[in-house]
Write a structure and sequence with these properties.
This protein is an alpha/beta fold. The protein has two domains: 242 residues, Ribonuclease Z/Hydroxyacylglutathione hydrolase-like (Metallo-beta-lactamase, Chain A, 4-Layer Sandwich); 140 residues, Flavodoxin domain (Rossmann fold, 3-Layer(aba) Sandwich). Helices cover 33% and strands 22% of the residues. Strands 1-2-7-8-9-10-11 form a seven-stranded mixed sheet. Strands 12-13-14-15-16-17 form a six-stranded mixed sheet. Strands 18, 19, 20, 21, 22 and 23 form a six-stranded parallel sheet that branches. A hairpin with a 2-residue loop joins strand 1 and strand 2. The site of one fe (ii) ion (FE2) has 4 residues, from loops.
Length: 399
């Protein structure tokens, strides 16, 4: 691993982690990842991003290949997640006079990440930093993907430092996109990264892309994965982000009914709820899905793109069952607010599943219909009729 020249004034000094197979607990990283960091050299020197703490040694060596770290005047953090800020404390020991530039929110977070004093200055949207012969423009990018995020743009090199945006968990010994041999593998990693990190923030992606449209960038230096170029994959990357972030309106009302059922009791309630929804909205796209028999990623996607949904669980060991919680763990919390939700399930004696699910969905600010619907053991015809009524209420609450 070594430092690599990106242009006359920009160098890549980050580190590769090809063996990583899970990132942030929940993301599979089949192709590993990289913790990118860049040096911009004018008369003064700026370091952009500060890599992962586990790789501080090799990171420092890479920096030394380009510049004596004591000469770093500014450390710019586009975002403070520890994959970008983990090595900051160690790097600042090498350049104690350096000033950390980041959004005000980021500097606030850094207090509790670095846990010792350092020089810092918040940067505002539109602010320009002159390094002498080369400048950097800062653009706030809220919720891409934390409240702290900013973009940094270098007009002299037409280069955008986009942080996690346009990133990918794709480790490679090639610095540039155009040198990657396995383009399909890269595209798979790029889509997986978008879905996991930016899927919940689509409106913010649209807003962020509108803000950087004024910059005629030809190179993007993201914080993970290869450097993107206009001759290489940059057009693909930009087109993909635009397409994936476009708001989708369902052609017909889409109301998936998710459930688990050990002995078929909750399954019967699910079928009755589907009947109720269809009685109110005959052309609704409304189907019941057994979570044990369906792919969880597909189920999560159906939930997040629904107009309303229902979720059912029997009570096992005083709670809803794990696949149902797993489904809810994939909820896009920002966009789910006010979404009508029906909660149902069969139980034997204590019946905690429905109230526990109602409590979680209420804390996510969804619009739970009534107090949920539960039935003791095997539903009677009257119970199924009531479940159908509950499905009708769900359909009626869709705006
Ligand atoms: C392993 C196991 C644990 C259970 N634990 C509870 C419980 O803690 N509280 C309760 O009310 N019912 C409990 N039950 C009873 C089920 O909720 C009840 O049989 C229900 O009708 C099953 O619905 P289903 O056919 O949709 O799975 C349990 C059942 C099983 C199989
Ligand atoms: Fe991040
Ligand atoms: Fe990151």
């Amino acid at each position: 691993m070594a430092a690599n020249k990106i242009s006359d004034r920009i160098y890549s000094v980050g580190v590769q982690n090809p063996d990583l197979r899970v990132f942030d607990i929940v993301m599979a990283t089949k192709y590993g990842t990289s913790y990118n960091s860049y040096i911009v050299k004018g008369e003064e020197v700026a370091l952009i991003e500060a890599s992962h703490a586990d790789f501080e040694g090799v990171y420092e060596e890479n920096i030394r290949q380009v510049v004596d770290p004591a000469k770093i005047k500014y450390v710019i953090l586009n975002h403070t997640e520890p994959d970008h800020s983990g090595a900051l404390k160690d790097i600042l020991r090498l350049c104690p006079e350096a000033t950390v530039l980041a959004s005000a929110v980021a500097l606030n977070y850094l207090k509790n990440i670095v846990n010792e004093p350092f020089n810092s200055r918040p940067v505002k949207d539109g602010e320009v930093l002159d390094l002498g012969g080369v400048t950097l423009n800062f653009t706030t990018a809220p919720l891409l993907h934390w409240p702290d995020s900013i973009f940094t743009y270098c007009p002299e090199e037409k280069t955008l430092f986009s942080c996690d945006v346009f990133g990918s968990h794709y480790s490679s010994d090639k610095t540039f996109d155009k040198d990657i041999a396995d383009v399909d593998g890269y595209k798979e990693a790029f889509k997986g990264y978008y879905d996991a990190i930016f899927g919940p923030f689509k409106p913010f992606v649209v807003a962020g892309m509108a803000k950087i449209a004024k910059y005629p960038f030809e190179t993007v230096c993201p914080s993970h994965g290869p450097v993107l170029t206009k001759e290489g994959l940059l057009p693909y990357v930009l087109d993909s982000y635009r397409a994936w972030s476009k708001p989708v309106r369902n052609a017909v009302k889409t109301v998936p009914v998710f459930y688990c059922s050990a002995y078929g009791c909750t399954a019967k309630l699910a079928a009755a709820i589907v009947d109720g929804v269809k009685e109110v909205i005959p052309d609704a796209n409304c189907e019941a899905y057994d979570l044990i028999k369906n792919d969880m990623a597909v189920m999560r996607e159906k939930l997040n793109s629904s107009d309303a949904f229902a979720v059912g669980s029997p009570t096992l060991n005083a709670d809803a069952v794990p696949p149902v919680w797993d489904l809810l763990a994939g909820i896009d919390a920002i966009n789910i607010r006010k979404r009508p939700v029906a909660v149902f399930g069969s139980f034997g004696w204590s019946g905690e599943a429905v109230p526990n699910l109602v409590s979680r969905l209420t804390s996510l600010k969804t619009a739970v219909v009534g107090e949920g619907f539960k039935v003791c053991f095997v539903p009677t015809d009257a119970d199924l009729e009531a479940a159908k009524e509950y499905g009708k209420q769900l359909a009626a609450s869709i705006k």
